[in-house]
Design the sequence.
């Protein structure tokens, strides 16, 4: 079992729809959870982080965390073609500064 | 402020040659991470430093890989001898002490070993 698992996609959504990206992790000691966006040929860019159970909203983005189910998600409201990218879920390994990354979900937003 | 700086941006070399990748972290950041990204394996942590000291090098694939951080503003990742399977994008990332798990990535070095 991988430490951080994501569906590779592609996830295709129409412009204006809600995109829902999911991630599961195996280390129950993990305390910090991150979503990075990576455009093709570019470096990962941090877009959201969450530490506590529940929802955290930032503009069109909402991160959701459920530690009991070891599940993290990212919702993108009013999706735009410029949101088309690969989204990487990252989880810290409990007690360390190390981040373990999933392999990413490719999102395609079509006009 | 300048972000993480990496050089070179692209490197093409022949099998058996030595390759040195360079990274300048964001000023004031005290942790530095080296990653490798491939289509097959995704983003893998190779090694990380805290206050210039290597903390965890368990991700370094083998003895051909070595990393140094002689001071707070410079780090190198060396591969000697290089092999075609080392072809990947290598990223450097740094974090500030006050937000130790928030990593800021450099633009990466695309390495091709022929």
Sequence:
């Amino acid at each position: 079992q991988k430490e951080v698992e994501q569906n590779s996609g592609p996830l295709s959504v129409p412009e204006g729809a809600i995109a829902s990206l999911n991630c599961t992790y195996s280390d129950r000691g993990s305390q910090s959870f991150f979503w990075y966006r990576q455009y093709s040929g570019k470096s990962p860019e941090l877009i959201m982080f969450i530490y506590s159970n529940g929802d955290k909203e930032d503009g069109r983005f909402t991160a959701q965390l459920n530690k009991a189910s070891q599940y993290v998600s990212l919702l993108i409201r009013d999706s735009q073609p410029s949101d088309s990218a690969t989204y990487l879920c990252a989880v810290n390994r409990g007690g360390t500064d190390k981040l373990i990354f999933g392999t990413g979900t490719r999102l395609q937003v079509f006009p | 402020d300048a972000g993480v700086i990496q050089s070179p941006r692209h490197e093409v070399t022949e099998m058996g040659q030595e390759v040195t990748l360079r990274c300048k972290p964001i000023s004031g950041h005290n942790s530095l991470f080296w990653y490798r990204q491939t289509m097959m394996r995704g983003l893998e942590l190779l090694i990380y430093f805290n206050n210039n000291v290597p903390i965890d090098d368990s991700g370094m694939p083998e003895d051909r890989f070595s990393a140094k951080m002689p001071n707070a503003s410079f780090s190198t990742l060396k591969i000697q001898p290089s092999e075609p399977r080392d072809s990947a994008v290598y990223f450097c990332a740094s974090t500030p002490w006050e937000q130790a798990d928030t990593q800021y990535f450099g633009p990466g070095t695309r390495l091709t070993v022929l």
About this structure: The longest strand of chain A covers residues 85-92.
